[in-house]
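Reminder: ligand-aware prediction takes two inputs, not one.
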Amino acid sequence: MNIRKTFSVLFAGAILSMGTQSMAADDFKLKLRLSHVFSPAEQLTKSMDMVAESILEKTGGAINIQTFPQAQLPAYKEGVEQVVRGANFISVEDPSFIGDYVPDFKALYAPMLYRSFDEYVALTKTQLVKDMQAKAEEQGIKILALDYIYGFRNLITQKVITTPADLKGMKIRTPGSKSYIDTLSAMGAVATPLPWGETLSAVQQGVVDGLEGSEFTNIGTKVYEGPTKNVANTRHILGTCGVYISTKVWDSIPPKYQAIVQEEFTKGANHMVELLKSQHGGVVKELESYGVKFNEVDGDAFRSALAPLYGEQEGMTPGIFQAIFKELDAMR
Ligand code: X3X
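Here is what comes back for the chain with X3X:
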Protein backbone atom coordinates (compact mmCIF):
# COMPACT_ATOMS: atom_id res chain seq x y z
CA MET A 1 0.00 0.00 0.00
CA ASN A 2 1.60 3.38 -0.95
CA ILE A 3 2.40 5.96 1.73
CA ARG A 4 -0.51 8.26 0.75
CA LYS A 5 -3.03 5.42 1.02
CA THR A 6 -1.55 4.23 4.34
CA PHE A 7 -1.81 7.75 5.74
CA SER A 8 -5.40 8.21 4.60
CA VAL A 9 -6.38 4.86 6.13
CA LEU A 10 -4.68 5.76 9.42
CA PHE A 11 -6.26 9.25 9.40
CA ALA A 12 -9.70 7.79 8.76
CA GLY A 13 -9.15 5.33 11.59
CA ALA A 14 -8.20 8.15 13.95
CA ILE A 15 -11.30 10.16 13.01
CA LEU A 16 -13.47 7.09 13.45
CA SER A 17 -12.01 6.29 16.87
CA MET A 18 -12.42 9.92 18.01
CA GLY A 19 -15.94 9.85 16.68
CA THR A 20 -16.52 6.52 18.45
CA GLN A 21 -15.12 7.93 21.68
CA SER A 22 -17.22 11.07 21.48
CA MET A 23 -20.17 8.96 20.37
CA ALA A 24 -19.37 6.65 23.29
CA ALA A 25 -19.29 9.70 25.60
CA ASP A 26 -22.54 10.95 24.11
CA ASP A 27 -24.16 7.54 24.60
CA PHE A 28 -22.59 7.09 28.05
CA LYS A 29 -25.01 6.77 30.96
CA LEU A 30 -24.08 5.91 34.54
CA LYS A 31 -26.28 5.69 37.64
CA LEU A 32 -24.41 5.89 40.94
CA ARG A 33 -25.77 5.52 44.49
CA LEU A 34 -24.16 7.84 47.03
CA SER A 35 -24.35 6.81 50.70
CA HIS A 36 -23.67 8.72 53.92
CA VAL A 37 -24.93 8.82 57.52
CA PHE A 38 -25.88 12.48 57.85
CA SER A 39 -29.37 13.78 58.52
CA PRO A 40 -31.52 15.87 56.12
CA ALA A 41 -30.95 19.07 58.13
CA GLU A 42 -27.14 18.75 58.07
CA GLN A 43 -25.14 20.70 55.53
CA LEU A 44 -23.30 17.65 54.23
CA THR A 45 -26.61 16.18 53.11
CA LYS A 46 -27.60 19.43 51.38
CA SER A 47 -24.16 19.72 49.77
CA MET A 48 -24.25 16.18 48.40
CA ASP A 49 -27.71 16.80 46.91
CA MET A 50 -26.53 20.06 45.30
CA VAL A 51 -23.43 18.43 43.82
CA ALA A 52 -25.42 15.49 42.44
CA GLU A 53 -27.95 17.85 40.85
CA SER A 54 -25.23 19.97 39.29
CA ILE A 55 -23.43 16.91 37.87
CA LEU A 56 -26.66 15.58 36.35
CA GLU A 57 -27.31 18.94 34.69
CA LYS A 58 -23.74 19.57 33.49
CA THR A 59 -23.37 16.07 32.04
CA GLY A 60 -26.69 16.38 30.24
CA GLY A 61 -28.12 13.53 32.31
CA ALA A 62 -25.22 11.15 31.66
CA ILE A 63 -24.07 10.87 35.30
CA ASN A 64 -27.03 10.32 37.62
CA ILE A 65 -25.99 10.26 41.30
CA GLN A 66 -28.82 9.25 43.64
CA THR A 67 -28.08 10.33 47.23
CA PHE A 68 -29.07 8.23 50.27
CA PRO A 69 -28.64 9.91 53.69
CA GLN A 70 -28.90 8.42 57.22
CA ALA A 71 -27.26 5.11 56.35
CA GLN A 72 -30.20 3.96 54.21
CA LEU A 73 -27.54 2.11 52.18
CA PRO A 74 -24.31 0.49 53.43
CA ALA A 75 -22.33 3.14 55.32
CA TYR A 76 -19.17 3.52 57.37
CA LYS A 77 -16.84 0.52 56.80
CA GLU A 78 -19.47 -1.33 54.74
CA GLY A 79 -19.90 1.67 52.46
CA VAL A 80 -16.20 1.80 51.67
CA GLU A 81 -16.29 -1.96 51.03
CA GLN A 82 -18.88 -1.37 48.32
CA VAL A 83 -16.43 1.00 46.62
CA VAL A 84 -13.54 -1.46 46.89
CA ARG A 85 -15.76 -4.19 45.41
CA GLY A 86 -16.30 -1.99 42.33
CA ALA A 87 -19.99 -1.24 42.83
CA ASN A 88 -21.62 1.77 41.15
CA PHE A 89 -21.46 3.42 44.55
CA ILE A 90 -20.02 6.53 46.16
CA SER A 91 -19.15 6.35 49.86
CA VAL A 92 -18.96 9.57 51.89
CA GLU A 93 -17.19 8.84 55.18
CA ASP A 94 -14.36 10.26 57.22
CA PRO A 95 -10.80 9.33 56.19
CA SER A 96 -10.36 6.99 59.17
CA PHE A 97 -12.43 4.43 57.24
CA ILE A 98 -9.88 4.60 54.38
CA GLY A 99 -7.26 3.86 57.04
CA ASP A 100 -8.28 0.19 56.84
CA TYR A 101 -6.78 0.14 53.32
CA VAL A 102 -4.07 2.83 53.56
CA PRO A 103 -3.02 3.19 57.23
CA ASP A 104 -1.52 6.65 56.59
CA PHE A 105 -5.10 8.02 56.50
CA LYS A 106 -5.36 7.14 60.20
CA ALA A 107 -2.46 9.56 60.73
CA LEU A 108 -4.23 12.22 58.64
CA TYR A 109 -7.29 11.77 60.88
CA ALA A 110 -5.35 11.63 64.16
CA PRO A 111 -6.61 13.66 67.13
CA MET A 112 -5.67 17.27 67.97
CA LEU A 113 -3.64 17.86 64.78
CA TYR A 114 -5.46 20.86 63.33
CA ARG A 115 -6.17 24.34 64.72
CA SER A 116 -8.51 25.36 61.89
CA PHE A 117 -10.48 24.06 58.91
CA ASP A 118 -8.03 25.92 56.64
CA GLU A 119 -4.98 24.07 57.98
CA TYR A 120 -6.53 20.72 57.14
CA VAL A 121 -7.69 21.90 53.69
CA ALA A 122 -4.16 23.16 52.94
CA LEU A 123 -2.68 19.83 54.09
CA THR A 124 -4.97 17.88 51.76
CA LYS A 125 -3.43 19.82 48.84
CA THR A 126 0.18 18.83 49.67
CA GLN A 127 2.18 16.20 47.79
CA LEU A 128 2.22 14.21 51.04
CA VAL A 129 -1.56 13.71 50.86
CA LYS A 130 -1.53 13.32 47.06
CA ASP A 131 0.87 10.40 47.59
CA MET A 132 -1.57 8.93 50.11
CA GLN A 133 -4.38 9.26 47.56
CA ALA A 134 -2.24 7.43 45.00
CA LYS A 135 -1.86 4.55 47.49
CA ALA A 136 -5.65 4.50 47.90
CA GLU A 137 -6.01 4.17 44.14
CA GLU A 138 -3.73 1.14 44.26
CA GLN A 139 -6.36 -0.33 46.61
CA GLY A 140 -9.17 0.51 44.18
CA ILE A 141 -10.33 3.71 45.87
CA LYS A 142 -10.45 6.96 43.88
CA ILE A 143 -10.70 9.90 46.31
CA LEU A 144 -12.69 12.79 44.84
CA ALA A 145 -12.52 14.97 47.96
CA LEU A 146 -11.28 14.86 51.57
CA ASP A 147 -12.59 18.15 52.91
CA TYR A 148 -16.33 17.99 53.48
CA ILE A 149 -15.61 19.36 56.94
CA TYR A 150 -18.51 19.26 59.41
CA GLY A 151 -16.73 20.76 62.39
CA PHE A 152 -14.44 20.01 65.31
CA ARG A 153 -15.80 17.16 67.41
CA ASN A 154 -16.30 17.99 71.09
CA LEU A 155 -17.54 15.98 74.07
CA ILE A 156 -21.32 16.15 74.54
CA THR A 157 -22.33 14.91 78.01
CA GLN A 158 -24.60 15.53 81.00
CA LYS A 159 -21.63 15.89 83.36
CA VAL A 160 -19.24 18.83 82.94
CA ILE A 161 -15.90 17.51 81.65
CA THR A 162 -12.65 19.49 81.96
CA THR A 163 -9.92 16.84 82.33
CA PRO A 164 -9.29 13.23 81.21
CA ALA A 165 -9.88 12.15 84.82
CA ASP A 166 -13.48 13.45 84.54
CA LEU A 167 -14.08 10.89 81.79
CA LYS A 168 -13.07 7.88 83.93
CA GLY A 169 -15.68 5.12 83.57
CA MET A 170 -17.89 7.23 81.28
CA LYS A 171 -19.30 5.42 78.24
CA ILE A 172 -18.94 7.80 75.29
CA ARG A 173 -20.46 6.86 71.92
CA THR A 174 -18.14 6.99 68.94
CA PRO A 175 -18.35 5.93 65.28
CA GLY A 176 -17.04 2.41 64.74
CA SER A 177 -13.56 3.09 63.40
CA LYS A 178 -10.46 2.32 65.46
CA SER A 179 -9.31 5.95 65.20
CA TYR A 180 -12.27 7.14 67.30
CA ILE A 181 -12.14 4.19 69.72
CA ASP A 182 -8.42 4.74 70.35
CA THR A 183 -8.92 8.51 70.70
CA LEU A 184 -11.75 8.40 73.24
CA SER A 185 -10.02 5.59 75.17
CA ALA A 186 -6.81 7.64 75.37
CA MET A 187 -8.86 10.64 76.54
CA GLY A 188 -10.00 8.54 79.52
CA ALA A 189 -13.46 7.39 78.42
CA VAL A 190 -14.96 3.98 77.76
CA ALA A 191 -15.30 4.31 73.98
CA THR A 192 -18.63 2.77 72.93
CA PRO A 193 -18.95 2.40 69.13
CA LEU A 194 -22.49 2.69 67.77
CA PRO A 195 -23.92 3.67 64.36
CA TRP A 196 -25.30 7.20 64.41
CA GLY A 197 -28.85 5.86 63.99
CA GLU A 198 -28.73 4.19 67.43
CA THR A 199 -26.94 7.03 69.21
CA LEU A 200 -29.68 9.38 70.41
CA SER A 201 -31.80 6.54 71.79
CA ALA A 202 -28.72 5.12 73.54
CA VAL A 203 -28.20 8.51 75.20
CA GLN A 204 -31.89 8.79 76.17
CA GLN A 205 -31.90 5.28 77.67
CA GLY A 206 -28.62 5.78 79.53
CA VAL A 207 -26.89 3.05 77.52
CA VAL A 208 -24.12 5.61 77.03
CA ASP A 209 -23.22 8.63 79.20
CA GLY A 210 -22.62 10.88 76.25
CA LEU A 211 -21.22 11.22 72.76
CA GLU A 212 -18.82 13.38 70.83
CA GLY A 213 -19.58 15.44 67.77
CA SER A 214 -19.54 18.89 66.22
CA GLU A 215 -21.93 21.77 66.90
CA PHE A 216 -23.29 21.16 63.39
CA THR A 217 -24.08 17.56 64.31
CA ASN A 218 -25.57 18.75 67.62
CA ILE A 219 -27.97 21.19 65.97
CA GLY A 220 -28.60 19.22 62.78
CA THR A 221 -29.65 16.03 64.58
CA LYS A 222 -31.20 17.77 67.62
CA VAL A 223 -28.82 16.19 70.14
CA TYR A 224 -29.56 19.28 72.26
CA GLU A 225 -33.13 18.06 72.85
CA GLY A 226 -31.76 15.19 74.96
CA PRO A 227 -30.11 15.12 78.40
CA THR A 228 -26.56 15.85 77.17
CA LYS A 229 -26.53 19.64 77.50
CA ASN A 230 -22.83 20.16 78.27
CA VAL A 231 -20.23 20.57 75.51
CA ALA A 232 -16.56 20.37 76.53
CA ASN A 233 -14.48 22.13 73.87
CA THR A 234 -11.90 19.39 73.40
CA ARG A 235 -11.87 19.82 69.59
CA HIS A 236 -10.27 16.40 69.69
CA ILE A 237 -10.94 15.44 66.06
CA LEU A 238 -11.68 17.62 63.03
CA GLY A 239 -14.78 15.96 61.63
CA THR A 240 -14.45 15.74 57.88
CA CYS A 241 -15.70 13.44 55.15
CA GLY A 242 -14.11 12.25 51.97
CA VAL A 243 -15.86 11.17 48.78
CA TYR A 244 -14.80 7.77 47.48
CA ILE A 245 -15.56 5.92 44.21
CA SER A 246 -14.18 2.70 42.75
CA THR A 247 -11.19 3.28 40.46
CA LYS A 248 -12.72 0.71 38.07
CA VAL A 249 -15.96 2.69 37.88
CA TRP A 250 -14.06 5.99 37.67
CA ASP A 251 -11.94 4.75 34.76
CA SER A 252 -15.11 3.76 32.88
CA ILE A 253 -16.32 7.38 32.88
CA PRO A 254 -15.33 9.41 29.77
CA PRO A 255 -12.72 12.08 30.58
CA LYS A 256 -15.07 14.96 29.81
CA TYR A 257 -17.51 13.71 32.44
CA GLN A 258 -14.73 12.86 34.91
CA ALA A 259 -13.69 16.53 34.78
CA ILE A 260 -17.24 17.68 35.59
CA VAL A 261 -17.64 15.19 38.47
CA GLN A 262 -14.28 16.14 39.98
CA GLU A 263 -14.92 19.87 39.63
CA GLU A 264 -18.37 19.73 41.20
CA PHE A 265 -17.25 17.70 44.24
CA THR A 266 -14.31 20.08 44.71
CA LYS A 267 -16.59 23.13 44.46
CA GLY A 268 -19.07 21.51 46.85
CA ALA A 269 -16.41 21.00 49.52
CA ASN A 270 -15.05 24.56 49.15
CA HIS A 271 -18.59 25.92 49.50
CA MET A 272 -19.35 23.81 52.60
CA VAL A 273 -16.08 24.78 54.33
CA GLU A 274 -16.69 28.52 53.85
CA LEU A 275 -20.38 28.22 54.79
CA LEU A 276 -19.75 26.34 58.04
CA LYS A 277 -16.89 28.69 59.00
CA SER A 278 -19.36 31.57 58.67
CA GLN A 279 -22.19 29.75 60.48
CA HIS A 280 -20.32 28.37 63.54
CA GLY A 281 -20.72 31.40 65.82
CA GLY A 282 -24.45 31.58 65.16
CA VAL A 283 -24.88 27.82 65.72
CA VAL A 284 -23.16 28.09 69.12
CA LYS A 285 -25.51 30.93 70.10
CA GLU A 286 -28.55 28.95 68.91
CA LEU A 287 -27.46 25.90 70.91
CA GLU A 288 -26.99 28.11 73.99
CA SER A 289 -30.53 29.39 73.48
CA TYR A 290 -31.65 25.74 73.79
CA GLY A 291 -29.85 25.43 77.14
CA VAL A 292 -26.56 23.96 75.90
CA LYS A 293 -23.55 25.10 77.94
CA PHE A 294 -20.00 25.20 76.56
CA ASN A 295 -16.86 24.98 78.68
CA GLU A 296 -13.14 25.07 77.96
CA VAL A 297 -10.98 22.12 79.03
CA ASP A 298 -7.44 21.43 80.26
CA GLY A 299 -6.01 21.22 76.74
CA ASP A 300 -2.51 20.26 77.91
CA ALA A 301 -3.90 17.34 79.91
CA PHE A 302 -5.83 16.02 76.91
CA ARG A 303 -2.89 16.60 74.54
CA SER A 304 -0.54 14.60 76.77
CA ALA A 305 -3.16 11.84 77.14
CA LEU A 306 -3.38 11.64 73.33
CA ALA A 307 0.37 11.88 72.62
CA PRO A 308 0.85 8.05 72.44
CA LEU A 309 -1.48 8.00 69.42
CA TYR A 310 1.19 9.72 67.31
CA GLY A 311 3.19 6.48 67.40
CA GLU A 312 3.33 4.80 63.99
CA GLN A 313 0.86 1.96 63.64
CA GLU A 314 1.33 -1.15 61.50
CA GLY A 315 1.39 -0.34 57.79
CA MET A 316 1.97 3.39 58.22
CA THR A 317 4.75 5.04 56.21
CA PRO A 318 7.77 5.51 58.52
CA GLY A 319 7.90 9.14 59.63
CA ILE A 320 4.33 9.92 58.51
CA PHE A 321 3.51 11.87 61.66
CA GLN A 322 6.75 13.87 61.44
CA ALA A 323 5.90 14.64 57.80
CA ILE A 324 2.42 15.87 58.80
CA PHE A 325 3.81 17.95 61.69
CA LYS A 326 6.39 19.46 59.29
CA GLU A 327 3.69 20.52 56.82
CA LEU A 328 1.57 22.02 59.60
CA ASP A 329 4.52 23.83 61.18
CA ALA A 330 5.33 25.34 57.77
CA MET A 331 1.82 26.84 57.66
CA ARG A 332 1.95 28.38 61.13
O1 X3X B 1 -18.00 8.74 58.70
C1 X3X B 1 -18.61 9.98 58.71
C2 X3X B 1 -18.58 10.59 60.11
O2 X3X B 1 -17.32 10.54 60.69
C3 X3X B 1 -19.61 9.88 60.97
O3 X3X B 1 -19.64 10.51 62.22
P1 X3X B 1 -20.89 10.14 63.13
O4 X3X B 1 -21.22 8.69 63.03
O5 X3X B 1 -20.60 10.70 64.49
O6 X3X B 1 -22.08 10.94 62.44
C4 X3X B 1 -21.98 12.33 62.36
C5 X3X B 1 -23.39 12.91 62.38
O7 X3X B 1 -23.31 14.27 62.02
C6 X3X B 1 -24.32 12.16 61.42
O8 X3X B 1 -25.59 12.79 61.43
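Confidence is low (pLDDT under 50) at residues 14-21. Residues 33 and 66 are 5 Å apart (CA to CA). We will return to this case in the review session.
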